[in-house]
Every structure is written in C-alpha cells, then in structure tokens.
Design a protein that fits this description.
By secondary structure, this protein is α+β, with helices and mostly antiparallel strands. It contains 15 helices and 29 strands.
C-alpha cells in the first residue's frame, strides 16, 4: 500500500550533509531512481530525475511486490537492517528491484532508496558488477548457479509423491535467492522446506547454499520445527548474507499424514484437499531468520488426508500476478486446483512435472519480477502394494517379469532411467536362475518379490531352489551378471544355502527430467587386473582423480565379479589419490564386508596414499599392507 510522504521536490534539492555539488549532479542523472528519506513518516529530502519520473506529481513512493516502499523505509529506520523488494513499476509490468539502506544525516538517521528496472535501463548502462545490461550470459550464470545448488533429486516414498520446480526472475538483478528441499528423516518422515535467501544474483545463490546446508544439518540432528528454526536463527544471526532470509519448514509423517510446521517471515502454504477444496494453513507471523534474537518459534499442526496435496511456494509465486497480493493468492489457488483436477497428473511419472505446471501457470506476459520456487507434496489415496511373481525358471518366463515389474515400478513413480536400471539388474538375476539353477535337471520354480519400505528403499528378491555355482575366476566374455547387477543398484547380497537368493536394494528418488552429462574417462591413470596369484589384484598407477576413479571402480567390480570374489588393490604406484578414489575404496570395502571378505589394500608406509587412507578412517574397513 502507498503512504503519503509530503510533496516531492520539483528539482534536485540537497539533503542535509549530502556532499559536494558535483556528486549531487552525478546522482541527479543516474539511471537508477534515488530517494533520500528522513524524519517521521519518513519524508522525502531529495529525489533525482529518475525518481521524479516515476513519482511525478503525487505524494506517494512506489509499490514493489505488493508492499509500500514507505512502510518498508520506516521499518529500516526502526531496525537499521537493509531491505530488498521486487515488484513492478507503478502503472506498468516492468520488473523492478528496490533496495533500502540506513544512511545517517546531520539531522538524524535517514534511508537511501535505490529503484532499478532492467527493462527501462539504457542499453549502455552497466547492470552491476559481473553483469552487463540485457546480458543473457549474466542471466544464464545466475540460473546455472541456482540450479546447481537445488537438490538433484527428491525422496520417493510409497505413500507420498514430491515435485519441485524453480523459475528464475526475468531480471538478472532479481534472480538467485529462492530454494526448496526435501530430506528423508527415517521412519517414514520427511522434512519439507522452501525459502528465500536475502539479496539477488550469484551472492544470493551462495547464501541459499549455506542456508540449505545448515538446514539439512539441523534437521538430521533434531528435526522438530521449533529446534530447526532456532538453529537457523542462530546461524543467520552470524551470517550477514543469510540474515533476513524467510523459510517455511515442516515435518510430514508419510504413513499417517500428520504435519508439524513453523515459518519465519514466509507465506502460508496451500492445502488442496482430496475433494478439491482449498485452505491456506494458519501460520503465526514471526520475523525472518536472524533478525530478532530469541524470537519464539510457534509450531502448528495439520493433517494431509489420503489424496490431499500441500503446495509450498516462495514470494515470487504471489508476485507473478502483480499487486495486490490478494490477486496473487487467488491466482495461485486457481492454478493449483486446476492442475490437480487433471485425472492423469498424479499417476506415476506425471507427478514429477506438477510443480512446474503450477509455476508456469502463474507466469504472465510481463515476466517474472521475482524467482518462483514451488514444492508440491501429494499423499496418495491408495498405496502401491508389494509385487510377487511365481514363475518357472526358464528363459520364456523373462518377458513376463519385465512387463509386470516395469508396470509396478512405473506406478511407484520411478523415472525411466532408474526404472530401466532396476529392471536390468532383476533380469540378470532371473536369467542366472534360468540358466544355472536347475542345470541337468527339470526346471524348477523361481519367485520374484518387490516391496518398498516407509523410507523409500526398494527391495527386490529373486529366489530359486536350485544349486549355487560360484563364478569362474576369469569367465571371459560371460558370467558378468553379478558385476552388472552390482553397478545398477545400491546394494546386492547373494545367499547360496537351500537354493539361491539374490537380494537387490536401492533407494528410490524422484529424478529431474534431464541429468547432467557424465564426464569422459580419464587418462591420468593405468588400471590393470593381475590374475596370476591366488586372488585377483587390481593395480593402479598414476593419478586417480575424480574422473579416473570411475575406471578404478569398474576394474575392482570386474575383478571381484560384482563383489562375490576376494580381491586385492595395489596402490603403490599411485601419485595422486583424490577424495573420489577414497569413496571408491569405501564402497568396495562395504561390498566386501557384506559378502564376508575383507579388501586388502597395498600402500607404501609413509606415503601420501597410505596417509590419506588412514586419515579417511579406511584403515578400520580394509587390511592395509
């Protein structure tokens, strides 16, 4: 809302202690709109030509994002903390960024107000450090920085579907601070969060990254909303660029639908009931993070009944429709209800794009004055039941396994790439049973079962009643099934008593539509497998960096036949051993432990590689020689 400021000056007029006339002359013709405010109200002491063009005759300062700039200026005078707003120009659709900071004057505290509009800035005016006006590369840099810091995937639970989306602001000056996240807490609980870090551009994206890291760390220690907000308050109070961030944080029990939540300076989320009715959850207003030491953290509770959907959003979702805020709230409700009314939107993979559908429905021809982040949580009306297939261990049974398993995994909401990986691993286990379990006898039964626990861990077992045949030490071009399975899932265990049982486990995730390209294989290391001794030895020489560590992993899995055969690792000729290589050794050591053997690693005493292994704590998991 606009507030009266007194009559603006008709020409440049020095503020108290404004400085040399030359400085005022330069500010008079600056491309940004400038006001100096002071006193009760506060009142305008001085405004440059650009500011007078925006507010020519009346007595009002602009409105940005539905908030009266005069009211915000009064808050800055009271608290001394800077504020940044985004919105549209008076009477237009052009995005505008408004920054207010405390500026002492001879007569007491004052406020300097800077308003910038990218769309109305001359092409030859620099947009700021690191960006050129109308520079698509600057916009891309901010967008890439933001997208790289958002979660690469979201948890996928049997009773809940998640969808996240981020659309940067049209102006590079306004983009970069919004974020969302979802963290699996165990026992069927999910932490859901959305927020807006202070500022814009790459610095805001960096602040968002620190805030997300602090939030995840706090949630994993004590996930209760009151505890998490208290921890974030303490964190933000020590970080100038995080101070003033807004956040909504909730913990959802996926099995019961119980929701506990709290907010700091963030708008209330939208709840769409299973019957299509909507309500905005009540939120107790409290200041943004780190702005009021010891601020209370009131916690509220709600229930998501089966079929209900919770929509979390950042300020930009409301600002997209322009002022007043009530218009944006109404538009958000309308768009969310319409998106959820589509019969197929909540089925399988279609759910992954729901947040994007809602965000895109909020966009107007006038562009996005602020970032738009949306996180959607839908509680399924009916859970996917476990799968059980009883078949005959013959090759002709494999197509039926693929068809049934593919349909079941799709119903879980798995993306195509993850789904194919699980199907290939299960197909290899079934093929092994069909080829080896009942060799020289009549084909017997094979059973395939698949289920997901409350935390989204998928377990698939393939059981037969035949005879387990250990793999040959060097099977040549055949016998790679165990190796393939090991690389496609998070964990695999083979038990050979009373038949053979292959258990495959992997954590489900809601992946983005586009995965980043994988790096090409490195050339700084040579990795060979020596099979002349009693156990295969993988020998590495050279630099094992982030890229070549993958080559080391593949050779270790190949030599150990997917972890089922004891193997040794020789690192005596390694000249660089990266953290990626440490992760490879850790993963193979964990596989070895699960399979009942211990990985032997050769590293020279006193050498850097051995020191890295010891510092990393791997000495407890491997046998160092």
């Amino acid at each position: 809302m606009n507030a009266s400021q007194g009559t603006p000056p008709s020409g440049p007029r020095p503020a108290e202690d404004a400085g040399p006339a030359a400085l005022l002359a330069a500010l008079e013709h600056a491309p940004s709109a400038l006001w100096f405010l002071a006193g009760p109200g506060p009142r305008t002491l001085w405004a440059n030509a650009r500011a007078r063009a925006l507010v020519p005759d009346d007595t009002d300062l602009p409105v940005a994002g539905g908030r009266g700039v005069a009211d915000v200026a009064a808050a800055v005078l009271d608290s001394g903390r800077p504020e940044t707003l985004t919105g549209v120009l008076p009477g237009g659709e052009a995005p505008m960024t408004v920054t207010l900071r405390l500026l002492p004057t001879g007569g007491g505290p004052g406020v300097v107000l800077v308003a910038e509009s990218r769309d109305e800035r001359p092409d030859d005016v620099a947009a700021g450090p690191g960006y050129a006006a109308h520079d698509p590369a600057g916009q891309d840099a901010v967008g890439e920085a933001q997208l790289s810091l958002l979660p690469p995937s979201l948890p996928l639970l049997p009773d809940v579907r998640l969808s996240g989306s981020y659309h940067p602001a049209s102006s590079v000056r306004a983009a970069g601070g919004d974020f969302y996240d979802a963290v699996s807490l165990g026992h069927g609980r999910l932490a859901l969060v959305i927020g807006d870090a202070v500022g814009h551009g790459v610095p805001a994206a960096a602040a968002m990254s620190r805030l997300r890291g602090a939030l995840r760390s706090s949630a994993l220690r004590d996930p209760s909303p009151a505890s998490v907000l208290a921890a974030l308050d303490d964190f933000a109070a020590q970080m100038d660029d995080v101070q003033g961030a807004s956040v909504f944080y909730a913990v959802l029990d996926a099995e019961t639908g119980g929701l506990t939540y709290a907010a700091a300076g963030h708008p209330a989320p939208l709840l769409v009931h299973a019957d299509g009715t909507t309500v905005y959850l009540p939120v107790t207003a409290r200041p943004p993070l780190g702005t009021l030491r010891g601020a209370p953290n009131p916690v509220a509770r709600a229930d998501l009944e089966p079929g209900a959907t919770l929509v979390l959003y950042s300020d930009g979702a409301v600002a997209a429709s322009g002022p007043p805020p009530a218009q944006g709230i109404s538009r958000l409700t309308e768009v969310a209800r319409a998106a959820l009314a589509e019969p197929a939107v909540l089925d399988g993979e279609a759910m992954a794009g729901l947040a994007g559908t809602i965000a895109e429905g909020l966009l107007t021809d006038g562009g996005r004055p602020d970032d738009i982040a949306v996180l959607v949580t839908h509680r399924l009306a009916h859970s996917v039941q476990p799968l059980q297939l009883d078949l005959l261990a013959v090759p002709a049974s494999l197509p039926a396994v693929r068809r049934r398993l593919s349909a079941w995994l799709t119903a879980l909401g798995m993306g195509e790439e993850d789904r194919v990986g699980v199907m290939v691993a299960v197909g290899e286990a079934c093929a092994n049973a069909a080829e080896h379990a009942y060799r020289d006898t009549e084909p017997g039964p094979v059973q395939v079962t698949a289920a997901v626990d409350v935390d989204g861990v998928l377990t698939v077992t393939v059981r037969d009643e035949g005879t387990w045949r250990p793999p040959d030490r060097d099977p040549g071009d055949r016998g790679r099934g165990l190796l393939i399975m090991r690389q496609l899932v998070d964990g695999m265990v083979v038990q050979g008593e009373h038949g053979t049982t292959v258990t495959l486990r992997t954590r489900l995730r809601q992946s983005p539509d586009e995965e980043p390209e994988h790096l090409a294989a490195g050339t700084g290391v040579a990795v060979v497998v020596d099979r002349t001794g009693s156990s295969p030895v993988v020998r590495a020489a050279g630099e094992v960096d982030m890229v070549s560590a993958e080559q080391l992993r593949i050779r270790l899995l190949e030599a150990s036949h997917g972890g089922t055969v004891r193997v040794e690792l020789d690192l005596t000729a390694v000249t660089l051993f990266s953290s990626a290589a440490v992760r490879v050794v850790l993963a193979v050591a964990a596989i070895a432990e699960a399979e009942g053997w211990r990985l032997v690693v050769h590293a020279p005493v006193g050498g850097v590689t051995r020191h890295i292994l010891q510092v990393s704590g791997l000495e407890r998991l491997v046998e160092l020689r």
